[in-house]
Amino acid sequence: MLVLFKIICYFLEIIYLASLESIHTIRWINFFSELKGYKISCISNKKINTNLNKNVDVYQLKGIKFISVFLKSIYLLSSKKKEIIHVHYLGWNSLLLLFASKTKKIILTPWGCDLYENQNNFLKRIWLRYIFSRCSFIICDSENLIKASFKLGYKSNKAKVIAFGTNTFEYKSYREPFSLDKNQVTIVGTNRNMEPIYDPLTLLKAANLLKDETENFRFIVANDGSLKCKIIKYIRENNLETFVELVGKKYGQENIEFYNSIDIYVSTSLRDGGLSASIAEAMSCKRLVIVSDNSDNSKFIKHGKSGYLFQNKDHIELANLIKNASINKSQSLKIANEGRNSILLNCNYHSEMEKVNKLYNEIYAT
After folding, report:
1. pLDDT tens column, 337-357
2. 139 and 243 belong to one structural domain
């Protein structure tokens, strides 16, 4: 079936308006740039990730060539040539749609905060209504995002939930978690950003409750953000310096190694779009996940079967789940295995991108 799609879309051209700093859009763009017959361009105001395929035509709206690249971008978008424009994240990058000709098919992929945080912003609501009226289709990873799009003015029924997906060939276990040695330290980690929406202090509060337990724990936070100073202060005030380690943001293979270095993955995020990429990656690496019960998390994680869920901000419940998972290591390993099976079945990068491939061809043909 995929071979048939390659033949059909031999002249299919796609222009992405997306951040080339995000590994999630990089993976998406790379998939289609590797398919024979696709011509891929990307307009971005962000730094280019080194993982981007070399055959992608990049228009980087940054630096001393900004004006020249901006004019080239306008020419590309305003040409009468039939192409697909796919916008990832409906932020200021989407303003370039003002120059898109009517011959272009526009696909929008909201990520979450681009909708939720703009519901009370009058000017951004007007803009979202405009681009929703222009677009041909919405692809996103959550039914909640589709509902939010309707509330903000999207009127068509042309929308589909497709996950970004996890590359299960890359994100896999290289080290068996949960050593049965009772004296072995249980390592708990997260790589969610140090921002208010991800509520990192809830994890630190849980760590503070567990520091005097007979079970041995160690916590690793692998990211940065605006709350870093507040987090460092909390660690110092509660004497957690030898208990919690801040290791900074990880990229590529380092990120895979991070997942394999821990036994339990925690997400305290107060809200996500669909299933967070980092949660899915941890599950794919066969790590036990303990995550806040919101958004679409319960659709992918069955409490006590493929992971654990706790109420937003409830650090006591989180601490108890971490402690019990460490005590019952054999059961935790079974749950972690089931978590990977869930990702293989429901959030596999290659099968999800093939769904997008089919949609691209259907939209282009109309």
Report:
1. 999 999 999 999 999 999 999
2. no
